[in-house]
Design brief:
This protein is an alpha+beta fold. The protein is built from four helices and six strands.
């Protein structure tokens, strides 16, 4: 079973552009990340810039509307995530409980929907989705140049 562990740092919704965690917090988090990796459960992880550097695209009658951050109505925002593969919801919660989070941080644990979770008509409508997942690769940095 795959789960996303979503880091929700209180106060991050109003963080200034370029806000970064301190080195001690990153060091503690790296030890935790290494424990996930050594246990063989870590699939992916990333941190996110604050919402003040982001944008939201909403839709009204099918037309996109872009709002630049920060988002005054936001109460909780993501600071980062881990994707893990474990045997149960309880195991995912146990991993989240080991995180060296601070008093202002919450981790939301959510199971990823697998194709087998959907009824047959939805599986048929999503034909090809699993192949897309298999062919999705790591992102290429924008500033990278092809090597000849």
């Amino acid at each position: 079973m795959r789960f996303m562990m979503l880091m929700i740092p209180k106060g991050y919704e109003s963080a200034e552009p370029g806000t970064m965690p301190d080195a001690d917090a990153v060091s503690a988090m790296m030890k935790y990340n290494e424990s996930l990796q050594k246990a063989g459960v870590l699939l992916a992880l990333d941190g996110l810039h604050p919402p003040s550097m982001g944008a939201r695209v909403s839709f009204t009658d099918g037309k996109p509307h872009v709002t630049d951050g920060p988002f005054s109505e936001a109460r909780e925002v993501l600071g980062g995530y881990w994707m893990i593969q474990v045997k149960s919801r309880e195991e995912a919660i146990a991993w989240a409980s080991r995180c060296p989070a601070s008093n202002n941080e919450v981790i939301e644990v959510r199971q990823v929907q697998e194709m087998a979770d959907f009824p047959a008509d939805v599986q048929k409508a999503a034909a090809g989705f699993e192949q897309m997942q298999q062919h999705a690769g790591p992102p290429t940095p924008i500033d990278s140049k092809p090597k000849h």
